[in-house]
Design a protein that fits this description.
The complex is a heterodimer of chains A (about 850) and B (about 180). Chain A is an alpha+beta fold and about 850 residues long. Chain A has 36 helices and 18 strands. Chain A folds into 5 domains: about 5-60; about 85-170, Phosphorylase Kinase, domain 1 (2-Layer Sandwich); about 175-350, Transferase(Phosphotransferase), domain 1 (Orthogonal Bundle); about 360-385 and about 655-870, Serine Threonine Protein Phosphatase 5, Tetratricopeptide repeat (Alpha Horseshoe); about 390-520, ABC-type transport auxiliary lipoprotein component (Rossmann fold, 3-Layer(aba) Sandwich). Chain A is about 50% helix and about 10% strand. In chain A, a hairpin with a 3-residue loop joins strand 17 and strand 18 (about 865-870). Chain B has 9 helices and no strands. The chains are: A alpha+beta (about 850), B mainly alpha (about 180).
Chain lengths: ~850, ~180
């Protein structure tokens, strides 16, 4: 190729100019061309200056190409068979064929990893025979889409015969629309599911990856109700069109016209709003059964709406606007607009699944109630203490292109803005930070002048097309590096979009890695980025605790990896121990031996923490927790307070004090502290869940209900909070039976392996309260775990105490949360019962109150030796 | 054929997934048809893509089964398929000529010389077209439809919703650019 893309583009512009001129004017025009267009003159002269410019080229390419038979019996199309190898893969069975590729279920045959993949083999052979760097890079970019809702791209290549292939995660699921139809989901439930789609698309868009072929058959739902998007970005790979700019699309406009945006059909360059359009078509079909413009289908069940209500229709119409500028700017704002329509989702799907399956249930749903905590976004938060100070220095432009200065500055400034939104952070203003631009000052001096403890500096590298940003967190006191980011790489046009990610990582580094840094200064945190990344993922899972077994197992896996990557990573050892204990608690009833092994491993992990960092805050956490389990209330509280003061306020440091406060009955104080945590982690399900329990114990049911509704918008369904909502509803005599049944079904944990016969009977007995109580009593007699909040909510104080006793006996000394339970008995007047008082004496709480003077919200001293609760 | 008919019938009743599937099925169908032509007794060794697309299109629209608004999409799609078939065959032949191919030649090079456009030109046009696609997608679309799809200027104008005059201008410009790029 003699012309570069840039030259070719310029040639096009010049031709447009020249073609408006008369032939004789072209000589003058050509001579007047500027120096930088010189290389194109020859091509232009040949094209334009012959006697007959049109004629000169008229014959060119005018003949149709012809091709010759090659003698292959099927005309050259390769038939593939099971058992054949393609690259490193062995074909197992065909999964299907589409317009662009055939898809096989395949096994990695060289043992590099053990996993079945969906192997896509394009029909189109115009993927470059030699796998170009660009193609490889494109695959690498797609492989960075690591989110559960997007099927992973594992590998891509070209085999020895030149056949390209793409190995993707094999997803077993049903297309979105049929999945919803076969379960007769109502509109809110459909919208909730669609929100998962938007989440995933938004994730990919933030990485500048477009899907380009979104349609129901590319959106699968697994049996567990999780959305998986297939083929993200693959449309481009399949066409072999890997050489174009990532955010534009040259052609291939006939892939799936029914879902394609108008601009895509016209073959114009597209951006993320083209995907938004396709999503609009999908949503329209999901809700009404037909795509926009089609005749409404006659509704066969109540699940679809032939005509959408006005506000919802407007939302869908906005996504479908012919002009991209009129659509939602991104998937997140689409999701935001849809949120109100998805909230009322009931769980018909779960209902069906439950009644058609064996009575698989959880005593543990109930054990899970044995945890406490608190929060409320709904009330104003107390102003958080400033715990970190930071200045973002102007980024260094190392691209060699002075024009990129503006990008470097823009990034730094945007990042500072984002960080400033974090309440616990004080960020120095731009004017001060940027005054050091281009000055070669010692970092310690800069930190001192700006009065900050941390500095963030970054650099920008890259060539004309892609840019790479890395940032480093510098300790202002000694100028050393505390943390280095991974490189954030993107197309030039998209690099600013990476700033969200950078800001999040920096925030994490400030709240988490600085702690690791503390440990490092004495003995062993981690400087291993891979280990740290696993820890962050673990932490995110923890904050979004779903109380599902699979989640616990994943957390254990993550932390086992982390300590393997860095055996001196104290936080990871601690997290590993916690997760092991939790998993053991999950399976303890049915698999006592395995649970024992897990506990032993946890013990070892904790010993490791104590060896590595005997004075660290991590050890304080554990100590406070141990003391709580030993029912040494005063000592536990003292350690918890020491811990809270030991460093930046965060989720980890506040948890032990929250636990002590709740267990000793100071519920309103718990709520206050938990609210501060929520301000830091507003999207953390764990925190929201705990707040709902706190508010419940405090009898603040309306606030609990409001927080419950908010939590549903976070991540949808959560068994714990659903169970709590159920008890709230049971306590109200006027609750709608169907609503009770729905809540009951929702509160069944999805992945629990425990069986309880009476639990399913209980569901069947709704709304007959007497019958429900009879079943609970029967279960108790049969030795099942019955949570005391249920009989309490149903008004049976005696049964509440009868169930509380075995729970305490069984779990005292083992679960630090067991003393929360008595405070959850709020409906049947149990706290005023003499048995409650006896229990508080027995647990040493009465002594603690008297000695410390820290009386709980619902009890107070009477005379010298006595007290009363209500 | 049976499946296409079934899908067309479902598509005609407004079944969304059937229309999707139709496209999925149409690709191999078109390709097979193209290959069949190539084996047609040696008399018809040249691939008359235009005739082919028309034939398959007519086959689909007979009885009004394919809607009018699908026509443009179908034509654009078909030219893409043709390009792929042509380029693949050209690559195979080029490989055979280099002696690396395993498939025997059934036609003599004599015949090959009579081909309107040899595989070398095809591959060079294809490569240059990939660059052109990045510079101007619409120009590239015109080339694809004209050169690989064999459509008339009027048909291209209809598909792209522009005037015939514009197509002529685009086609001239595209060829000038391709020629420069291929030199």
């Amino acid at each position: 190729m003699s012309l570069s893309i840039t030259e070719m583009a310029r040639l096009g512009e010049l031709l447009d100019e020249a073609m408006t001129l008369a032939p004789e004017q072209r000589f003058v025009w050509l001579d007047a061309l500027s120096e930088k267009d010189r290389p194109l003159v020859k091509a232009l002269r040949e094209s334009l200056l012959s006697d007959d410019p049109a004629g000169a080229i008229a014959g060119a390419l005018d003949r149709m190409p012809g091709i010759e038979a090659t003698g292959a019996p099927d005309g050259g199309r390769i038939e593939r068979h099971a058992g054949e190898r393609l690259g490193a893969y062995e074909l197992l069975r065909p999964l299907g064929a589409g317009g662009m590729a055939e898809v096989w279920l395949a096994n990695r045959a060289d043992g590099a990893f053990e996993r079945q993949v969906a192997l896509k083999i394009p029909h189109l052979r115009n993927v470059p025979t030699q796998m170009t760097d660009r193609f490889a890079r494109e695959c690498r970019i797609l492989a960075t889409l690591e989110t559960p809702n997007i099927a992973r791209l594992y590998d891509a290549g070209v085999d020895a015969t030149g056949a390209p292939y793409i190995a993707m995660e094999y997803v077993q699921g049903e297309p979105l629309v049929t999945w919803c139809d076969s379960r007769a989901l109502d509109t809110p439930a459909r919208i909730q599911l669609f929100m998962q789609v938007l989440d995933a698309v938004s994730y990919a868009h933030r990485r500048q990856i477009l899907h380009r072929d979104l349609k129901p058959s590319n959106i699968l739902v697994t049996e567990q109700g999780e959305v998986r998007l297939l083929d993200f970005g693959v449309a481009r790979l399949l066409r072999g069109d890997t050489s174009g700019p990532a955010m534009t699309q040259a052609w291939g406009n006939a892939l799936t016209p029914a879902y394609a945006s108008p601009e895509l059909l016209r073959g114009e360059p597209v951006d993320l709003r083209s995907d938004i359009f396709s999503l609009g078509v999908v949503l329209h079909e999901l809700l009404t059964g037909v795509r926009p413009g089609q005749q409404p289908a006659s509704p066969t069940d109540g699940s679809k709406i032939p005509v959408m209500p006005g506000a919802l229709r407007d939302t869908v119409a906005k996504a479908l606007a012919p002009d991209p500028a009129d659509r939602f700017a991104d998937a997140a704002s689409f999701a935001e607009a849809l949120t109100p329509f998805g909230i009322a989702a009931t769980s018909r799907m779960r209902l069906r699944r439950f009644w058609t399956r064996p009575r698989l249930v959880a005593a543990l749903a109930v054990l899970a109630l044995v945890v406490a905590g608190s929060v409320a976004l709904l009330r104003p938060h107390p102003a958080p203490a400033i715990v970190q100070t930071i200045a973002v220095l102007p980024f260094t432009n190392l691209t060699g292109d002075p024009e990129q200065d503006i990008v470097a500055d823009g990034l730094a400034e945007e990042l500072a803005n984002q960080l400033a939104a974090i309440p616990e952070l004080r960020v120095t203003g731009r004017a001060s930070s940027f005054s050091f631009k281009g000055r070669n000052e010692d970092l310690r001096v800069i930190a001192k002048k700006l009065g900050v403890a941390n500095l963030l500096e970054g650099s920008l590298r890259g060539d004309g097309e892609r840019l790479r940003v890395t940032v480093q967190l510098i300790d202002g006191s000694d100028g050393t590096r505390r943390w280095s980011s991974r490189p954030y790489e993107n197309e030039q046009s998209g690099i600013l979009a990476a700033q969200d990610e950078i800001a999040q990582d920096v925030a994490r580094a400030l709240s988490v890695t600085l702690d690791v840094g503390e440990l490092n200064s004495s003995r062993g945190g981690t400087m291993n980025l891979e280990a740290a990344r696993r820890y962050w993922e673990w932490r995110e899972l923890t904050l979004d605790e779903r109380w599902e077994l699979e989640n616990q197992r994943r957390k254990v896996r993550l932390m086992r990896d982390a300590v393997r990557l860095d055996p001196r990573f104290v936080l990871a050892w601690d997290s590993l121990a916690q997760s092991l204990e939790t998993e053991a608690r999950f399976i303890g009833d049915v698999q006592p031996e395995q649970a024992g092994e897990l506990r032993a491993e946890a013990e070892q992990a904790w010993r490791r923490v104590a060896e590595l960092a005997p004075d660290s805050w991590v050890v304080l956490c554990k100590r406070s927790d141990d003391l709580l389990r030993a029912e040494k209330w005063a000592e536990s509280e003292a350690v918890a307070r020491q811990l809270l003061e030991s460093g930046p306020f965060n989720f980890e440091r506040s948890q032990p004090l929250i636990n002590v406060l709740f267990a000793t009955g100071r519920i309103n104080e718990t709520i206050e502290l938990q609210s501060r945590v929520l301000a830091l982690e507003p999207r953390a399900m764990f925190v929201s869940r705990d707040l709902q329990f706190d508010l419940y114990a405090a009898g603040r049911f309306e606030e609990a209900e409001a927080e419950y509704q908010r939590s549903l918008t976070l991540h949808g369904n959560h068994a714990n909070v659903d169970a709590l909502a159920l008890t709230r509803a049971l306590a109200r005599p006027d609750s709608d039976p169907q609503a009770l049944r729905d809540l009951f079904q929702r509160s069944l944990p999805v992945s629990s392996q425990l069986l309880s016969d009476s639990w399913s009977d209980l569901g069947a007995a709704i709304p007959n309260r007497r019958e429900m109580l009879r079943i609970l009593r029967k279960g108790l007699e049969a030795g099942e775990v019955v949570h005391p909040t249920l009989p309490d909510a149903l008004g049976d104080r005696d049964l509440a105490f009868s169930t509380l006793q075995p729970l305490l006996t069984r779990m005292r000394g083992e679960n630090s949360g067991v003393w929360y339970v008595p405070w959850l008995l709020v409906h049947s007047g149990a706290r005023a019962d003499p048995r409650f008082k006896e229990l508080m004496r027995e647990g040493g709480l009465a002594d603690f109150w008297r000695q410390s003077g820290k009386w709980p919200d619902f009890c107070g001293p009477v005379g010298k030796d006595d007290f009363e609760c209500h | 054929m049976g499946e296409i008919t079934r899908l067309l019938r479902s598509a005609a009743t407004g079944d969304a997934s059937a229309r999707d599937a139709l496209f999925a099925v149409a690709y191999p169908g078109l390709e097979k048809l193209a290959r069949a032509r190539l084996r047609d007794g040696g008399r018809n060794t040249l691939l008359d893509t235009r005739g082919l697309v028309h034939e398959s299109y007519l086959r689909y629209v007979r009885g009004g089964e394919l809607r009018a608004d699908d026509r443009r999409a179908f034509f654009a799609f078909a030219s893409q398929v043709m390009r792929s078939v042509i380029v693949t065959s050209a690559r195979e032949r080029a490989a055979e000529k280099r002696g690396s191919g395993q498939k025997p030649l059934t036609l003599t090079t004599q015949v090959a010389k009579q081909l309107p456009a040899g595989e070398d030109e095809i591959l060079r046009v294809h490569d240059a077209l990939e660059s052109l696609e990045q510079v101007d997608a619409r120009l590239a679309q015109v080339v694809q439809m004209r050169y690989f799809g064999g459509y008339s200027e009027r048909e291209i104008a209809e598909t792209l919703e522009v005037t015939e005059r514009t197509v002529q201008r685009l086609w001239l410009k595209a060829r000038l650019m391709l020629r420069a790029a291929m030199e």
